[in-house]
Every structure is written in C-alpha cells, then in structure tokens.
C-alpha cells in the first residue's frame, strides 16, 4: 500500500517536484487558514461558488486563467532556462518533455480558453442589453467543469506524473503500447472534462446572442465584440465535438484496450492527427477571434471614432471562421499526402491572410482622422498590430507547403505561433481586461504600473521570439531538451527575453493588487467614454444589469444614448425583473465528475463507476428541479438605481 | 505624449536593427538558407521569394501604423480640423486592400504548387538513376538499408554526391521525420506505410541529419550524420562494408528495436529480409516482440556527449 503510494501514486525523486508539493501544501493551508480566520467560507459559498451571475462567473474564469498563465509561464521559464546554454543540466529529457507538454496544454486550453470565455461572460450580456445568459445554471456548470478539468490536469505533476506526449498527443507515441503509464490519461480526461464546459458555453452564448438582444438590436447592430463571440460560439459548437470523439476513442484505446489508433490490430494512428487538427485549427481561431473583437472595441473607443468598415469586419470574421475548417492538413504537410492535397491546403491556408489583412487595414482606418488616446488598453491594442503582422506573414510562409518541409517542427514554427498567440490572444486579453476592468471591479488599473508592465511584456516578447525564427532556419527542432553549441547566442538572447516577459506579467499581477488598494473608485460607469451598452450601466453593475433595456438604433447604442440623453433607468417603464436563483449543484456535480475522471485515470473502476452514477443522479435531480427563479421587485430596483445614480451626480 | 511616441519608435527599431544584424552576418550560419543540394535550393528560393513579398506587406503596415498613431494622436495643440468621428468606411480603399492580398496569395501559390509537384520527382539535372535507401526508425535509432548494395548502417549515412537519393521512409513505432536541413525538407516516417523523399547533395561534406518529429525521451539524440562523397569513395565504402562487416541477424536487429540509444554500426545485410515496416504487416512486429516494454524512457542529461543515465 505505502509502496504503491510512494512509488507510483506520488511523483518522487525530483527536487523540483518536492518543491512543488511543498508549495501546494503551503498555499492550500494558507487559503484554508485565511478563509477560516476571516470567516469567509459562507461568503465564498454564497457569493461565488454557487453563483449563476454571468459577471461573477466571468471574473472566476479570468482569475483561473491568470493562475494558469502563471503555471504555464513557470513551465516556459524552466524550459528557457534549460535551453539557455548547451549542456545545461537543469531538466533531464523526461522532465523537459513533461514540462513542454503541460506548458502547451495549459496555455491553450486552461489559459487562453477561460480568458476569452471569461471576457465573453462579463461583456456579452451587458453589450446586448441582457440580464444574464440564456442558461445561467449551465453557465455555472461550464465554469466548474472547466475548473475541475484544469485541476485534474494540474495535479498530474505531483500525483502519477504529467503527460509527456506534447499538447498534440500524437499516437502511436501517446497510445497504450508506447506510453503504458497512466500519465497520458490525465491529458485525455482533463481535456474531456473541461471540453464539456466549453461546448456548453458555445451553445449558451449562441442562444444568448441570438435570442436575448435588446429591442432594435438586429444582428448588424451588434457591437463587434459580441459578433466575435457569436462566431466563436459557432466554431466551438462545430469543432469541440470532434475533440470529444477523438479523446473518447483514445481513452477507450488506453483504458479498455480498443484499437482505434494503435499500432497493432489495424488501428489508424494518422486518423488521430487528422481529428486533432480538425478541432485544433478551428480552436486557434476560437482563441483569436474574441481578441480581434476586443481590439475593434478598444481601438474605436480610444481613437474616438466609429469602427472603420463594420460590415467588412463582420464578413471577414465569418470568412475566417469558414476557412478555419478547411486548412487542418497544413499542420502535417509532411505526412506525404501528395502534391495535389498539399497544394489545395496551401492555398486555403494562404487565403486566410485576405480577411485578416482586411481587418488589419480596417483597424488602421479606424485610427485615421481619429483622436487617439494612449491609455493602457489602447497600448495593448496598438502593439498588437505590428507584432501580429509579423506573426501573420510568417504564417503565410508556413502555409506554403513546399517551404514548410523546411520549417515544420522547428523553432520557426514556435516563433510563428507564439507571435500570433501572444501578440494576438494574450495582448487582446490584457487589452480587454484593462479596458473592462473598471466595469468589473469599480476602479481602473493603475496606468503608470500598467505601462511598465506593457513595455516589459512587448519588449520581452520580441527578444524572446524574434531570434527563434532564425533558430528554426538554423535547424533547431522544437521539443528538444538540449541545444547544439552553434545555436547558443540566439537561445541565450531568447531566454533573457523570456525573463523580461515574465517580469511584465508579474508587474501586471502586482498592478491588480496595487489598483485594488490605491486607485480612485470609478463613479461614472463610463470609464473610457465608451460607445456600447455595457458602459450605459452603473458601476458596480447591479446584479440584474439593466433596470430598463433601451431601444437600440445602431451598433454604437450607448453613443447614441449619450447624444439623446437616454439612460438604462426609465422609471416609467420599470417592471419586476425575473432572475435565476443561485445553485450549489454545478460545483457539486463537477466535483463528482472530477472524482470519476480521477478514477478512470488510474483505471480504478470502483471509484469511476460510483462517480458516473453520482453524475447521473445529479442530472436526474436537476431534471426535477422546478425552481423558476425569482422577481426583483420594483422598489428594490428603484432603491438600487437611485443609490447608484445619486452617487453619480 | 511626445515621449510616448518616441518610445514606440525606439521599441520597433530594436527588433529591426537586430534582424538587419543577422542578415548582415550572412546566411552561412543559417542552414536552410545555405542549400547544399537542388531540393534545398528550390525551397530556399521559395523562402526568399516569400520573405521579399512579406517584407513589402510588413513595410506597408508599419508605415501606415506609425503614420496613424503619430498624425492622429491627441496632443496639446490638437484641433478638430482632421477629426471626423463619423467617417466609417471607404468602399474604394476596402476593395483595394481586399484585391491586393488576393494578388499576393496568387503570386505565392504559383511557385508553391509548381515546387510541390517538382519535389515529388527526383531532382532534375542528373542523368543517374536515383539511389534507393530505406530509412527506418525505432525509438531512438536510424536504420539505413541499401537494398541494391545489400548493406545497412545504424545512425549514419553515406551518399554519393550529384546523384539523387530516393529515401523510402518508414518506422517501427512512433511517427518520426527524416530531416537533413542542408539538403532539403522533411517527411514523416510512419509505421505500416511508406513515404518517398527525394534529396540530393551537390557537394562533398558532412551534414547533420535528425528526426525532426518529437518521439519521446530520446528525441534529442535521435540524430545521424550524412557524409556526401565522390562516387568512387562511396563505392569503396560500400565494398568495405560488404566484405568486412557482420551480417545483421534477426536476433541482432530485434535487440535494436528495444527502446534506447545505439552507437553507429554497419552490417553486410539488411533488416528488410525479416520485416518491412512500410507494409501493413510490419506494424505489429515491434509490439509482438516487446509488448509492455515499449514505454521505457531514457533519461538524458546535459546534451550531446553529456552524461546519459539510462533507466
């Protein structure tokens, strides 16, 4: 028993892992102590753990994303340390492989995804004049399945061992024959668990946006961020089931001995690569399109001008979404599918540059004849344009299959996708977070500290990743735990850049603390002279969002309201507002799913089967839940609004 | 604000200067841009062509970008002479920046497609028949079988210069990729199927070759060296192996298939007599042999020549 726990269950023998275990225990004890000492358990349960309020769920998503960004960032620094010099002995090859696998998986699925979904949660209902999302209970369930999926993935490095087959998890390497250890099961079940939440989010936001818009807001009068959320939801709905199926098939291979992707028994290993990228390529547009939406909002607000080419922006996103499903083969041009197939996918891939180029020029056009303020959200959006252009054109180069034979699997590719994901998604999320921060928390983030963080991040990002283009052309493959002497200077430079980049993130997080303590409270509700409906609400936003929903005439609804003097509080139109009750079920049900998944990871059917039965019982209970929510009485609305607006005047 | 704009300028000059410095230092250190054979040259020309076109795009975007943020920034003596908050589009401009990218994509597509078809054939310009070499992998070794010469090498490769090489790529276990950057791009080795990759060396010399596709804990050392030599030297090398090297017995080859690293070696027969991994039947050869033992990891420390510790 103890032998099993020490040798198989816990990961032992690595000083770094012992450090991680100790810090996990310490942090857990600290959190429990703080919650108990300040008697916060009940508050935490009542206000957050059981909430179905989209604003709070969004904030929880973003906190989780920042925590995962920290974890993925530590992974990145460990890798860059190992690669700084030839002959480094910081990580061995096995440990390094686990680190780059968890780095990739964490950053895409547990950082970028919750970050965009968090912003969508906070902003979309406010932008369309809705009181909540269409399915608030489901929304909470989405968050908790994501959260427990992320936790399941993260415990792997102390319990049982991290997966090490790369975030793409190619078979046969990741299959039961070549990776018989349980590590890989963590990847499969954690992604499956959090994937449930993502798919549910896609459905939730599709319905919310299609069904719950303010009167007068036709599709072509929606704010552009909401458009990006709508298109993202559609991509999620089409792409995620592919991942679900692929993961399920590999799980069956690994746990029940089937032969979908195995070497023996006529499995088809290459089918995994196809299924993975059939999901994986749309996935990268899932994480980039909302960032495009953020940039459109931010640039228009801070250039104090209407968005240039609103319709073209919408159509461009639709075209990108469509093309995202017909380019997946470019992730394995070198599989030998032949010149015809590669030609076709080269051309579809390069075609994505057309709508993306249109968007870049429209953002530039938005600034033309504007009046540009350089606040921190705008700085992130501005840095995006040149940096993303470099990442984008190298993407076109990678799309040229004949040349890709030389770029594939090298640091050229690494530099490209970090160039688009950091300059696109991460800058976008930081722009969005600083932009909507006053709406979420009632104060801005400090501008001075924000600028320091911004410059460190942008400079560090360029020093880290520009050298990697050249390293790729010098023949440095990705996923190697060690470097050749001739690659040393550029790798050292890249490592220095990575630490500068990390400094930018640390200061960003410090700014959250600093701003909470010292920044002046936001009183107007319209912190940046905004243009869309989220700025029409008071700050803090009442839990029902809008006392009365205004009639919308254009995609800049609040700009129009400011011109006519309309508000979201029209006393003559007040009616009781129907709101959902908070529920403990989503977190409980997700926790049970976590236990069941953990059981499956270890092939412990005595744990997995009762867990699955528990989930089914939860679903049955939920099906007989006739709770219709409650109505906020007019008097309470009046009291809330007058208090908030009284303070404003 | 002025301060800020100059900050911006400085920021984007740093990577610019840096890139210039690298280009100025010559392409000699950059393997892919310094081709040693016709295949790599085709790809290098395509890369240079695309870099040129892409630079034009980058310059246009950067110029417009800095024009916008400098010209239309809010500044102390700002007037609303140039301020037009209601301007929301311009059909002519939008058509221009839709059509031009289409033209650029077309310009890139033509050489891409012609190169793709050309790379499926032996390189032109040589009157000799391609030399066939089977390149198979297993964790974490390369086996090069020369069926005509009936010899096999482990983890190194000799080729005659100026003669096309027809690699038949396959593997026993994980998916890998044969990549010799100086000679041309990579292709996957997959169990149960066979890929064909044509390469050719125009010079004599030693080139680095490797598996480019991650395949587990021994990946970093899954490399080989390529020696390109004159036809006479190559033939001499072949007959030396034919006469002096031991035969590759099935037992010996099965030992190789166990996960781990191996030294360079040569044999006067090939493993193709026992198993062809390029055939569907070859796929379960390794799992039948080592079922349960294929998950063994090799713990590498400290890079090439460093202390390795096997488990």
UniProtKB/TrEMBL annotation, chain A:
Cofactor(s) demanded: ferriheme a; Cu cation
This protein's GO CC annotations: plasma membrane; respiratory chain complex
Keywords, sorted A to Z: Cell membrane, Copper, Electron transport, Heme, Hydrogen ion transport, Ion transport, Iron, Membrane, Metal-binding, Oxidoreductase, Respiratory chain, Translocase, Transmembrane, Transmembrane helix, Transport
Domain Cytochrome oxidase subunit I profile positions: 39-553
TM stretches of this protein: 16-38, 59-79, 99-124, 136-159, 186-212, 224-250, 284-302, 314-333, 339-358, 379-403, 415-437, 449-470, 490-513, 604-621
Highest rank taxon of the organism: Bacteria
Listed name of the protein: Quinol oxidase subunit 1
Organism: Marinococcus luteus
From TrEMBL, chain B:
Pfam families given in the database record: COX2_TM
Protein localization: Cell membrane
Keywords attached to this entry: Cell membrane, Electron transport, Membrane, Oxidoreductase, Respiratory chain, Signal, Transmembrane, Transmembrane helix, Transport
GO cellular component, as recorded: plasma membrane
Membrane topology: Multi-pass membrane protein
UniProt-listed InterPro entries: CcO_II, CcO_II-like_C, Cupredoxin, CuRO_UO_II, Cyt_c_oxidase_su2_TM_dom, Cyt_c_oxidase_su2_TM_sf, Cyt_o_ubiquinol_oxidase_su2, QoxA
UniProt-listed SUPFAM superfamilies: Cupredoxins (SSF49503), Cytochrome c oxidase subunit II-like, transmembrane region (SSF81464)
Sequence ranges assigned to domain Cytochrome oxidase subunit II transmembrane region profile in this UniProt record: 24-123
Main location: membrane
GO molecular-function terms, A-Z: copper ion binding; cytochrome bo3 ubiquinol oxidase activity; cytochrome-c oxidase activity; oxidoreductase activity, acting on diphenols and related substances as donors, oxygen as acceptor
Enzyme class: oxidoreductase
GO BP, sorted A to Z: ATP synthesis coupled electron transport
Transmembrane spans: 45-70, 91-110
Lipid biosynthesis in keyword set: no
Occurrences of domain Cytochrome oxidase subunit II copper A binding (ranges): 128-240
Superkingdom per UniProt: Bacteria
E.C. code: 1.10.3.-
Record field: catalytic activity: 2 a quinol + O2 = 2 a quinone + 2 H2O
Its biological purpose: Catalyzes quinol oxidation with the concomitant reduction of oxygen to water. Subunit II transfers the electrons from a quinol to the binuclear center of the catalytic subunit I.
NCBIfam families: QOXA
Protein family (similarity comment): Belongs to the cytochrome c oxidase subunit 2 family.
Protein name: Quinol oxidase subunit 2
Record organism: Marinococcus luteus
Lineage of source species: Bacteria, Bacillati, Bacillota, Bacilli, Bacillales
